[in-house]
Write a structure and sequence with these properties.
The chain is an alpha/beta fold. It has two domains: 121 residues, Response regulator (Rossmann fold); 93 residues, Winged helix-like DNA-binding domain superfamily/Winged helix DNA-binding domain (Arc Repressor Mutant, subunit A), CATH 1.10.10.10. The chain has eight helices and twelve strands. The longest helix has 15 residues. The chain starts with a strand and ends in a 5-residue tail after the last strand.
Length: 225
Amino acid sequence: MAKIVIIEDDLDIRELVLYSLTSNQLEGVGFDSGQAFFNSGLKSGDVSLFLLDVMLPDDDGLSILKRLRSDANFEATPIIMLTARSSEMDKVKALDLGADDYIVKPFGILELISRINARLRRQQPKSIVSYGPIHIDTHKYQVHVNEQVVELPNKEYELLLYLTSNAEMVIAREILLEKIWGYDFEGESRTLDIHMSNLRKNLRDAAKYLITVRGVGFKLGDPDA
């Protein structure tokens, strides 16, 4: 489970927030400074959200915010600022630097937990990917076409999912071979044609949405466009 990281030098506030997270089935870890966090070795997969105080003993929270946003590991991780600074300019500066939310101290724990949950919900990937009559449930690993379940072998499923996720875009053959078979794929490109042919058979009437772009690749799109 990814952790919610709180960077806050006030021990009482830090422990209260960590206790509240645990009480709401959320996992948290606290640090008293930005440097303590960066020394921890935590990476993007370990952190689901930051709670970041502005006034800290080493670098201030805005400097840490800028550092996080310039780090490929954390550039997309939600960050909620916790601060006693309540002026509009302070809020605007933090938001312009990449903060996702700004909560003024003293704050209510229930409101904080609610805002955390709202941010976490927005981070969850969509489980349904659709185009026309084709609907893919990525959680259940299931494909529906015209409301009927269609069983697909792994590679055909991956092909359809990639094309559906990039609908209306022409995807080069080389890209499909790389994404579906990996960088070290050394087979003949004919392999792709065979799988696309089988995929069309399995999609039946919906096969018309799989469009071959001669000399380039394939796309999932409107056949009448």
